[in-house]
Structure formats: structure tokens, C-alpha cells
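HUMAN: Can I see a protein plus its fold?

ASSISTANT:
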Amino acid sequence: MLKLELTTTTSPIADGPLAYGVTTSPFGEALWGFTVAGLCHLSLHDAGVDPCAILRVRWPAYHYQARQAQAEALLDAALCSTASPIQAWVSGSAFQVQVWRALLQIRPGELVSYQQLAQRIGQPKAARAVGSAVGKNPIAWLIPCHRVIRQSGEYGQYHWGRARKAAMIAAEQK
């Protein structure tokens, strides 16, 4: 199972460039963004995206530096259950970070509802707020927001598309 060591803060990322690379993942093109502090961005796309345009939305104040070999190494680590932990750095509110940490506790193949996740963090009436925090997850796939579904059992929306969410769930349940 992938190990992700999460460092969190409410302030902007460390000084220096935001490095990036685009790899082919099992779920489409993956844009990896990272600094000396660790992986700070992972998004999934169809082919042909402009990585810098995507990064500018979330990280407008930084300059970008292509580092393809490091992105390939991150993909390899994500796919290899025996690899060393991936160092990740995320910035969000205390509540968002609490939700993202709870997502890391959901086992591969397990699905939970937003309500169940809210209960797990001790906020049983905060299912909608949990859903908002899940939707702001900056590291797709590795912080497994795809494991959260509607109480009805429907997969619901997914930032990177319903088909990707279904593929991720199916891959984990094999």
C-alpha cells in the first residue's frame, strides 16, 4: 500500500520554484507539482493540457520548472507498494487538513459516505463541509478522495470525472 507522509500548513508553499512533470498514470495524464517541501499538486487530465496554465490557477505567485525525471519517479513510487513514502506538502484550513488526513485512513477498496467521513472526524453534522473539503483535495488519487461516495451508494461527482472515479474504485476492489 502506498505510504504518503503529509506535512501541512496554512501558509503558502516554501520559496523557490514549483517543479512539475506530466506522466501517464493508470487514470490518464497526471500533472505532478512539487517543491523542496514535497508533492503539493497532483491532478488528472486528458492528453494535451498546458501544465503551467493548470498550476497558475492554484499557485499563481510561483515560477515553474519542468522536472520530468522527478515526476516519473513519483509515479513509480505511487505504483510500487514497497517504495519509500512520498513526502507531500499541502496547504489548507485546519478543517480541510483534518478531512484529508481522514481520507488517508480509508483502506484501498473501502468506500465511505460523506456522512461517515464526517462521523470519523468527530463532526457528524458536517457532511456538507466534509464534501467541500474533499473537493478541494490538492493531491488527487494519492489522498484518496475517490473513496468517498454518496450515502445512497452513488459515486456522485468527482473533480476529475466520474469515469476516472469508477476506474479507481474498480482497480482498488480487484
